[in-house]
Task: inverse folding
């Protein structure tokens, strides 16, 4: 995450806000950025692969 992304997020908040809300937003942004990077690098599961994985959880 960059300072620019944090400042942009901070600018979009109302004048009064809960710190927890801001931290949750930053956490979400970080998770989305990580997921995009993983997708770009081919680190994803196909629908069929996920169906197999989920099915194995119940056995």
Result:
């Amino acid at each position: 995450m960059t300072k620019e992304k944090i400042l942009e997020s901070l600018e979009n908040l109302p004048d009064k806000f809960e710190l927890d809300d801001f931290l949750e937003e930053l956490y979400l942004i970080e998770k989305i950025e990580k997921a995009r990077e993983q997708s770009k690098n081919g680190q994803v599961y196909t629908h069929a692969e996920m169906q197999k994985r989920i099915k194995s959880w119940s056995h």
Helices lie at 3-11, 19-40, 47-57. The two ends are 39 Å apart (CA to CA). The chain has one domain: 3-57. Residues 3-57 form one domain.
